[in-house]
């Protein structure tokens, strides 16, 4: 009887599942069956030290040649009967999640890996249980004729050149049926992992046409170099730190140990991961676990202040981010969203051109300091969300993704390519790639091995770095915008592959951590992104709602149909504002991340600027600053007191005014701590108070919201927030004149209640003139009369 051994690799050393069971469409006699059989799987540690589970099934001889389906059911703490297969099977129209195989008369083996980061690249390999690990190098290169791992000689300059200069010892690799090449675990030179720990290496690939190329490891956890120099182009002084990391060698890094020094090389600074994470959390400062509880501070680490303006020594690093944590704790935010942390081209960039998804940007101080940063955030009750970019690679991907093992465009396997190279003119073979309005061709997310690389990197961020969530960049470039480079014609199958990829990504991460925050940046209006998968959706937690910004602040295309409240108020006229449009935005805010400033709209996109500049039409002087700050307080309050999840870009809380552009942000950095102690102090205090008010009152972070009045002529918007017996009324005005005698509005929600003012944005402590509602306000008949300052926001709480 043919026997098949089924193995389920979790891809993690952590014990996440209580029990794992195999299920498939066969009977107890080993014949095809309409009823799926369930049987237990035995736990074991695989050769890479990860938890895995296996079971063997005997099939009837006459079943050979037939197709069988199988899957895995897992139980985890607090969760039962979870489907353990995340990848979809079959044609695009199918969303089946099982695996399939044709039974061989000799039996065989079937396996599924949930996360592949510890199986490809440079990883520990345990030949026998209880032995110290050796090292195994592996790489996917299905078109290669030959592949070798080469170690940097140690006698040169620390770099392996394209002509082979700098290469030292090499190790032969053999190919399996899936196109994965691996070194032999029996090679005596590879039986001691510690011998090659921190070694620099590359893969020497004899490509499909016989040419030889040196390629970095796409599963690398570290890329050497912190600079901008590509030695192949000349001008390198031989210093390793000056190398452009995406062009240099990969480095063997142990994912199970952490350098407590965060970059130092002293041996006594290293501890095992379990010890490092042992005291990660504080009971006095719990990390938020629900989307509606988050108040997100968007941070670009490279843009942090590093010293006096005349002598700032390059981009900010994780050390500077660590230095901001007390500041953020004082501010009161409970989540930081970081621009991409994976390796990317250059040093002074935003990171939206990733190369090595498993490696933390080395010039930001690398993986060890990033782990320290996450741990320190968690100790302060701050969740960490990281931007990830899957819609394109770095345009300069030689030595990385581009033509990794071939010179044929249709075999350029990390990129989506439609058809054969011969389908396109000889002088335009690039015609088969997909453009998607990003800055590069679409990655080949329809290929399982490419998806495994990308999803595995996110799983590593979750499991090894303990991040709490992700924001996926420009998702419409995956699901809607793909067109053929040849002629711009739509490529619907590319869009479908993008949707499948996003679903698998979400499923995998939720198997590891059900409460992971999955945010989508999307500008298409597609309503399926944040819908549950069981309802046909993709499965994100929420989407960034850029429309909130465009209506509240401004818009690059000057769309006259939009409210553009802050921009229009900044002209200083008394013209009506479209408060009714913003009323609709408030009602639509639940389930969205809403923001009044982000990295894209703080000077980078056309006609955008920092809000303090927008608020006075770019005329920020001593005599206009009070108006600018007052209007900025209003839009901040509208975001914080909406029913969405609020976010703002770093510096907004201290009235940062310098433009934040992709090309020159280093020259426009500001010292937020110094601004807090000077001109930005009153605004910082206002942010502290509105953040505290939202966090301490469940009604203000519930989904319950109703608009009580929106009046364009008076520039007033009033809304109601409640949960149980707790209620708030928020009154926002962008009128240039105060309503000292009161502003009257009525609504049935207000009947028979008394209110007390708990926040006035124009209080003297915020730099305003004062005034407001010192006595309680009654609404016995459903009518309120509230004093409103010019360009102010008032919060009234129901008095019980």
TrEMBL record:
- Span of the signal peptide: none
Looking at the record, the residues that make up the Glycosyl hydrolase family 13 catalytic domain are 294-694
> Sorted alphabetically, which keywords does the UniProt record give?
Transferase
**Gene Ontology MF term list:** 1,4-alpha-glucan branching enzyme activity; hydrolase activity, hydrolyzing O-glycosyl compounds
| GO BP term, pick one | glycogen biosynthetic process
Mind telling me which Pfam families this protein's record contains? Alpha-amylase, Alpha-amylase_C, CBM_48
Q: What is its EC number?
A: 2.4.1.18
Query: What are the positions of the active site?
Result: 473, 521
Catalytic activity annotation: Transfers a segment of a (1->4)-alpha-D-glucan chain to a primary hydroxy group in a similar glucan chain
Q: Which domain of life is it from?
A: Bacteria
Q: Which family does it belong to?
A: Belongs to the glycosyl hydrolase 13 family. GlgB subfamily.
PANTHER family from the xrefs? 1,4-ALPHA-GLUCAN-BRANCHING ENZYME, MALTO-OLIGOSYLTREHALOSE TREHALOHYDROLASE
Q: What's this protein's name?
A: 1,4-alpha-glucan branching enzyme
| Source species of the chain | uncultured delta proteobacterium
């Amino acid at each position: 009887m043919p026997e098949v051994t089924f193995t389920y690799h979790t891809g993690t050393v952590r014990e996440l599942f209580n029990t794992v069971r195999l299920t498939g469409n066969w009977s107890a006699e080993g014949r095809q069956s309409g009823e799926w059989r369930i049987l237990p799987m035995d736990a074991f540690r695989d050769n890479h030290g990860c938890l895995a589970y296996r079971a063997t099934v005997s099939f009837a001889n006459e079943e050979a040649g037939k197709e069988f389906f199988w899957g895995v059911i897992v139980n985890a703490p607090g969760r039962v009967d979870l489907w353990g297969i995340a990848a979809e099977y079959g044609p695009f129209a199918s969303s089946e999640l099982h695996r399939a195989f044709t039974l061989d008369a000799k039996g065989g083996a079937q396996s599924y890996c949930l996360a592949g980061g510890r199986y490809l690249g440079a990883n520990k390999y345990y030949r026998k249980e209880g032995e110290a690990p050796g090292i195994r190098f592996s790489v996917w290169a299905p078109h290669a004729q030959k592949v070798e791992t080469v170690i940097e000689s140690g006698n040169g300059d620390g770099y392996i050149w394209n002509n082979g200069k700098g290469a030292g010892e090499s190790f032969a690799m053999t190919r399996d049926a899936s196109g994965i090449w691996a070194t032999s675990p029996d090679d005596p030179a590879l039986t001691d992992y510690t011998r090659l720990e921190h070694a620099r290496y590359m893969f020497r690939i004899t490509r499909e046409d016989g040419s030889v190329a040196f390629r970095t490891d796409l599963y690398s956890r570290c890329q050497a170099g912190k600079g901008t120099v590509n030695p192949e182009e000349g001008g390198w002084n031989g210093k390793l730190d000056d190398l452009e990391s995406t062009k240099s060698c990969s480095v063997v890094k142990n994912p199970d140990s952490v350098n407590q020094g965060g970059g130092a090389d002293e041996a006594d600074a290293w501890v095992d991961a379990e010890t490092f994470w042992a005291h990660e959390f504080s009971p006095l400062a719990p990390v938020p676990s629900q989307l509606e509880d988050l108040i997100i501070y968007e941070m670009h680490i490279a843009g942090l202040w590093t010293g006096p303006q005349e002598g700032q020594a390059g981009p900010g690093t994780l050390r500077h981010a660590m230095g901001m944590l007390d500041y953020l704790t004082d501010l009161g935010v409970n989540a930081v969203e970081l621009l991409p942390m994976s390796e990317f081209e250059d040093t002074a960039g935003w990171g939206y051109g990733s190369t090595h998804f498993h490696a933390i940007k080395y010039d930001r101080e690398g993986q060890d300091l990033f782990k320290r940063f996450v741990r320190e955030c968690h100790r302060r009750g701050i969740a960490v969300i990281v931007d990830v970019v899957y819609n394109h690679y770095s345009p300069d991907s030689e030595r990385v993704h581009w033509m990794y093992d071939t010179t044929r465009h249709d075999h350029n396997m990390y990129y989506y390519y439609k058809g054969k190279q011969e389908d396109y003119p000889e002088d335009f073979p690039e015609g088969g790639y997909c453009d998607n309005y990003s800055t590069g061709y679409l990655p080949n997310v329809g290929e399982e091995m490419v998806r495994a690389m990308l999803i595995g990197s996110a799983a590593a961020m979750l499991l090894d770095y303990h991040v709490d969530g992700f924001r996926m960049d420009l998702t419409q470039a995956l699901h809607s915008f793909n067109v053929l480079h040849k002629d711009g014609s739509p490529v619907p199958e590319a869009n479908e592959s993008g949707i499948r990829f996003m679903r698998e990504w979400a499923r995998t991460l939720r198997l590891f951590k059900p409460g992971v925050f999955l945010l989508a940046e999307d500008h298409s209006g597609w309503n399926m992104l944040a819908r549950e998968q069981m309802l046909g959706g993709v499965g994100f937690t929420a989407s960034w709602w850029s429309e909130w910004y465009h209506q509240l602040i401004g818009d690059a295309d000057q769309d006259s149909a939009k409210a553009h409240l802050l921009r229009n108020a900044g002209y200083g006229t008394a013209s009506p504002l479209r408060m009714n449009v913003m009323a609709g935005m408030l009602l639509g805010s639940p389930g969205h991340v809403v923001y009044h400033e982000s990295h894209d709209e703080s000077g980078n996109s056309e006609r955008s600027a920092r809000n303090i500049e927008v608020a006075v039409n770019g005329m920020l002087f001593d005599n206009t600053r009070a108006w600018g700050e007052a209007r900025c307080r209003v839009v901040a309050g509208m975001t914080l007191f909406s029913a969405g999840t609020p976010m703002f870009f770093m510096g907004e809380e201290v009235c940062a005014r310098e433009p934040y552009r992709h090309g020159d942000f280093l020259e426009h950095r500001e010292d937020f701590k110094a601004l807090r102690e000077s001109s930005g102090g009153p605004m910082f205090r206002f942010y502290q108070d509105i953040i505290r008010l939202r966090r301490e009152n469940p009604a203000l972070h519930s989904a319950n919201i109703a608009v009580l009045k929106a009046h364009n002529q008076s520039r007033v918007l009033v809304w109601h927030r409640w949960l149980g017996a707790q209620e708030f009324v928020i009154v926002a005005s962008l009128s240039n004149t105060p309503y000292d005698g009161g502003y009257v509005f009525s609504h049935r929600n207000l009947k028979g209640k008394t209110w007390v003012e708990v926040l006035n944005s124009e209080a003297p402590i915020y730099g305003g003139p004062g005034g407001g509602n010192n006595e309680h306000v009654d609404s016995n008949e459903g009518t309120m009369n509230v004093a409103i300052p010019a360009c102010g926001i008032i919060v009234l709480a129901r008095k019980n």
